[in-house]
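Q: How would the structure tokens look for this protein?
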Amino acid sequence: MIEWDHRSFQEHLGFKTNWGIISGRALSGKTTVAQNICNLSHGKILNMHAIAETCKGRLGTEDEPFEGEVPLEEIQKDTLAIVAKDKAACEKFTYVFDGYAHKSPADFVAWANESFGPGDFYVNCTSELKDIEERYKKKNEVEEVGEDVAEELAAQEKEANLEAKALTNSVTSLFGARCQQLTVANDSSLEALFSQLRSMFCAKVVLVNHEQRLNVDTACSNIAICFNMLYLSVHQLIKQHITKGTKMGKELLASKKLKQLVQESGADEFEECEYSAAHFDMHLVAQLIK
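A: Here is the predicted structure in token form.
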């Protein structure tokens, strides 16, 4: 007998909270990576250190501003409130944690797992020391890196490596293969970096081609629910753009070449034959889905 798992049931219904974490030393480009992941996956950055600063306004008053370290419980409370507010507004984001307020990576991963469920990805940003030094000189408008700064950068690298190892161990222990673990080397051009991220985070598309007489809507809908995917009826997308006269709709209409389709018995209630992707340029259809 299969044991009942409420969390798995919620995931299959599409209620899973998607989240991941970015780690990396200072000047490794982790904030840039986090922002680009958000752009590719309809994401939102959650930086618990920044959230801690907003907590101070809530905990203090104009006459008596809050001073000292914000309690972890308050930071967690405000973080959960952000996610709850998004869900109440029917917004489904992928949350990217760029910084956490817990004492250790293990504490953060345990809390996030308890609050949101298993993580989807862990990205560790790395950079060669020479690139870190170049970014340091550019940021601070200096021509050379002194010995004191070199020692500081070396210490940061050691600390970042320890954090990455601890996060890897925690993520592997709790989530196993369910959580994708990636290392992003931010040593080359921004275009190369973006290309690397696109290959990792762009939406994966499965195209279903079938004979017109076969009704596959129910099967596709069930598959989408089972694997937490989004089921799009392409002919309805095409119809919407053409009937509304959008730019894409006009291009699709101009490319239309009628083909003889085998229609299932009964009326074509949703005009699937009329707006089937088979009639239109496949490059345009693919662009529409993208």
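The chain has a mean pLDDT of 85.

Strands lie at 18-24, 43-46, 94-98, 121-126, 180-185.

Upvote if useful.
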